[in-house]
Structures are given as C-alpha cells and as structure tokens.
Amino acid sequence: MAISVASATTATTIAGTVMADEDTWAGSVPSPPAPPVSRRAPWWAMVSVALAAVMPVGVLVLSVLGPPSEVRATRSDPGTTEEIVYGYAIVPGDAAGTEGRVRVTGRPAFDSAGDVLFVTVSIPSLSWLDRLVLRDADPRVVDLLTARDLLGDRTPEQERKENLRLMGDSKRLATYVAMRTLGIDVPVRDGGVQIDRIACEEAAADGSTCAREAPAGRVLQKNDLIVAIEGRPVHLVPDLPSAIAGRAPGDVVEVTVLRGSTTGTDGQRLTVPVTLIRSGDRTILGIRPKPLPPGSIRFEFPFEVDIATGAVGGPSAGLPFTLAVLDRLTEGELTGGRLVAATGEIDPTGAIGEIGGLAQKTQAVLRSGASVFLVPRSQAQEALAIAAGTTLEVVPVRTITDALDALAARGGVRLPAA
C-alpha cells in the first residue's frame, strides 16, 4: 500500500505604489532612511511550516518501517499468548474478464456479448502505516498473516514461482476439461495419480479414527505416484476405475508406483501386489488420490488454446477458464450475455475444488457489476454471508456440469451433447 503526499507552495506578490511629489522632487533634501520593519512570522505560522515539513517525512518513515509486533493467542494453546508480526494481508483483488484472454488457433472461435470473470485476491506485504490503516478493517474481508502463515518454509520468490506453476497447470486442466466436455479426444501422456492417503476399511468405535486400513496400506504409502496398474498406464484419476474394471473385491492387482518422486518422472520405481476392496457397490483400489496430476502430465491437444494471465498465479481460476474456453469454442451465449463471475479449482474429472480467499473474492465481485457468482458448493456459505443484502446471486456448484446447468437456467445456451 503506497501513500503519496503532495505539497504545493503558493506564491503571493504584493505590489507597492511609489508616490513622488514632482513639484518639489528636484530640490528636495533626502529623507533619512526608514527604520527596518520586523518581518518575523508569528509563532503559529512557524509551527505550521514545521508540521508541513515533518508530516511527509513521518508518513515516509512509517511506510518503509516493518509492521509492529503484536500479541495473539497461541493457536495450539488458546490459553497462552505469543508475540507475532503480521507481515502480510489477504485483501480483495480484481474480477477480470476471461473471454478476451482466450486465443484459439487451428479451430473456429466465437465472440460473446457476455463474459466470465475470474477473481483474484491481493496479498501485499505490510508496513507500519499499512497495519495502522488496516487496524479497523472488516475482518471478514481482510485476513492478516504472518510470514510463516503465508509462506511456510518457502521464500517469497519460491512462493511466487509455485503459484505461477499452479496457474499453468490450471490453464492446461481447464482446456482439457473443456475439450472433453465437448467430446474432443485429447491423448494424455505421463503424469500419474498421487496417493493422498490410504482408505479406511473399518472405522473405530469413536467414529473419528480408523480401526483397519485398506490392504493397500501394507505396500503403498502417502505420496506414492501410481503410474500403472497391471501394466496399463495411469495418467489421471479417471484412469483408476477403468484400470480395475471387471475386478471384484479380494482380487489382487499389480500396481506400479514411483516412490519419492519430486517431478513425476524421478523416484524409485516399484511394482507391488494390492488387494482390492469394496466401497458401497464399487470395487476400489483402497487409496484416496490427490485430484490434480503432477507437473509431468502432457496433454496432446488437437489445436492450440492459449489463456493470457500475465503475473497472476494460483489454481483457483480453473472453473472460469473452463467456462471461457467452452464459450469461445461454441456458438451462442454461454452466459446469456451477462457478466458471470466464477472461482474454483478444476480437476480432470470436471469436479470443482475449494479455493482460498473466497470472502475477499466475493467483495471483488460485488465491485465488478457481475450478477452471478459461481462458487464451490462446500464453501458457498462464506460467499453468501458477504453478498447478503446485495443483488449478487451466489450459486453453489460441484462440477462443471452443475456450472453449465446453472448458466442455462439463467438464459445461457445449452452445449451440444458430447
């Protein structure tokens, strides 16, 4: 937050009139010089000048000084306190159009009268002055963070690079989901499915812990990257059920993983036997996958789609980008000709995941003129609380199909069946 202080000096010219007695001027005797007139300014004028000089300096000093330390309850033990420094804040950002950012090469593209807005937050580093200004800010739309809250063990540069990587992944996944929604074949190479955790086969009596893990836990670990089942390549989460189709609970399949992989291509390659289990009426591997593929995933798009995002980072624009690509690739008005804002991660199945800063993003949408805001269903209450009493319609969605149905119900065209 930068504050500019401008000062202006007004010069006033006072014109004096010289009077001469022409009848006696030539022979007149010079008058003695007049005594000097005291021009000392009154005390209040001197104080005003001093304050005018000091105030810009004070503002400048406060704007470059780091924020003050503060005392808060310790998060792990609310009964104790800790001294911390709120060095960052999450505040409302912008709601920017996507239609003009999507460029299609190798296939006809269509313009739209409406637009899909993607929404950002701003995360400024705070000075002493910023912290003073934000002291009474609405806590619903201004989140104060310490450096550890925001960065963890990363440096600001590492955080920036990671967010740009996530934005790149988000754009590729949005393009993939949009094309698949339209029935366009997109070959996929590499990637894999990373294990988030082992599934629980039997819950403990307390209902909150697991009494027995799935058999997969005997040979598989959290963060293992599954790359094949029975020799069949696995690139994305939807490949898992198809790889074990026709199998029954109790069957054993050979699962190939990369263990300790950091890029999706390195790590120790292992092939282990995994016993399948039942979940409802389905047969499953017995793991809970992370929804997003690693950076090694390669989509072989049949034509080029480029989404210009500049220096904006993060994964939360997956939903609006998917809608924007769909709108550009199809005739008619997907939004019904109106401004529609949207936020949410997108995964390869078209599911919409949770995002951060939803309260701040809702505030940004309120300033944008959008009439509808599509948000992840599990977070809808947060957005509804900020939009209460306004004309903004907050619409919870769980999948890309939900989002398309919501737009069609509000005057948008329905896409042709894939």
TL;DR?
The chain is an alpha+beta fold and 418 residues long. It contains nine helices and 24 strands. Among the domains are: 164 residues, Ribosomal Protein S5, domain 2, CATH 3.30.230.10; 102 residues, Pdz3 Domain (Roll), CATH 2.30.42.10.
Average pLDDT confidence is 82
- How does the overall form come out from the CA principal axes? globular
Per DSSP, what share of the residues sits in E-state strands of 2 or more residues?
Answer: 25-35%
Number of helices: 9
CATH topology of the domain at 94-121 and 159-185 and 301-409: Ribosomal Protein S5, domain 2
Helix content: 25-40%
**Would you state the CATH class of the domain at 94-121 and 159-185 and 301-409?**
Alpha Beta
Write down the oligomeric state: single chain
Major sheet attributes: 6 strands, mixed
Q: Quick one: how many beta strands? A: 24
Which consecutive residue ranges, at least 5 long each, have pLDDT under 50? Answer: 1-31, 57-64
The structure class reads alpha+beta
Strand order, largest beta sheet: 6-3-5-20-23-24
- CATH architectural group of the domain at 94-121 and 159-185 and 301-409: 2-Layer Sandwich
> If you compute it from the alpha carbons, what radius of gyration comes out, rounded to the nearest whole angstrom?
32 Å
Distance between the termini: 48 Å
Kindly describe this structure.
The protein has 9 helices and 24 strands. With 418 residues, it is of the alpha+beta class. Among the domains are: 94-121 and 159-185 and 301-409, Ribosomal Protein S5, domain 2 (2-Layer Sandwich); 188-289, Pdz3 Domain. The strands form 8 sheets. The chain has a 6-stranded mixed sheet with strand order 6-3-5-20-23-24, sandwiched between helices. Residues 1-31 and 57-64 have low confidence and may be disordered.
